[in-house]
Amino acid sequence: MEQLIASDTTVAEFIMKHPPVHVDTKPQVVTLKDKPFTASLVSESAVLSLRGLEKEIQDDIGERGIAKLHIADELLRAALVLSHSSFVGIHFGFPCNTNDEFPDETDGPLGAIALGKALKALGKEVTFIASYYHVKLVQVLVETFLRNKACVVEFTPQRTHGSGRVRAAAQTLLFHNPTNQMSPKFDVLVAIEAVGRTEEGRYMTMKARDLSEICKVSPVDEVFIQAKKSGKIATIGIGDGGNEIGMGKVHQMVVDGIKNGQHIATTVATDHLITSGVSNWGGSALVAALAILSQCPVHSPYVRRGILPDTPVLTKDILNTVEMEEDILKCIVGLGVCDGILQKREMSVDGQPFHPVHKEKLQRLLTIATLPIGITEQEAAIR
């Protein structure tokens, strides 16, 4: 993904001498990483569209105070990182319903599967990293909704490997040569509504209920810790409360501004952090962002380096419809997955019914994703 661009002029100077014919082709440089410097190009109009998506998912429906955790343009940077990737690992999992066969909640799986579909449509290799308690659930979802076009691997370190077993297992999962961390197996890892450990090494719900007994068997957050530490694999976290993988990037803000923050705040940070009123929305917004970038007249040729053949991917092949999202929810509820707040097997996520709450939010994200780049809903209505 890392690229070096040498030029005897700045982008601003070049644009002044060669103004774009259309505003939607005016380029903007977006820094993705400082050391080593990594950046990407995208049209200013596409940036506006992605900011519209990011604004849409800040609706704090659970009144948790996520506005205090928001970092502007993280959706943009995360989408660009994924656009440049070839091999992506995805993880979800918040086992708050500990008495159920599948203790996950309904927030997380929908966004993760939608993202997996989008990445596959864009030609990426996708691997789902599963905890021991939901391997079968992930396999069913991949088989049913991705037609087995993604891999599923279980991360459960063997207890006989000594004190460094978890770290060693994570490095083995991440690298072809784990001894010196050469040849990463992934370009990017994405965690969506996945529990992360606190400073004390515990895994907590928003109500400060301890889930450590189940989480420490498959501590997938260690995979993200080792990936970020290596500096060779980009990491993205999507969360809505402060206790999810990625929220370590705003650890002190969670401690100071979120209820029970001093008890639940995770220290597991990611390079990019997407905050959202509901984590599934964050996953859907990331998918919508990828759809927009795939149609961007500046970013698309830049990713292809201007020489690879232009084989456009249809937006409909990237995005899930509202009906598709509803089908995923029906599937996991049918398998016994419960709403994390209501702790009931219902067509709801985070205590809110799919109809109308989540349906309407998904529709708004889809509307933004399918509008001409840079055009607002109001402008489209006038036209």
UniProtKB/TrEMBL annotation:
Gene Ontology MF terms: D-glutamate cyclase activity
Upper lineage: Eukaryota, Metazoa, Cnidaria, Anthozoa, Hexacorallia
GO BP term, pick one: glutamate metabolic process
Protein name: D-glutamate cyclase-like C-terminal domain-containing protein
PANTHER family per the UniProt record, alphabetical: D-GLUTAMATE CYCLASE, MITOCHONDRIAL (PTHR32022)
Domain D-glutamate cyclase-like C-terminal as annotated: residue spans: 53-365
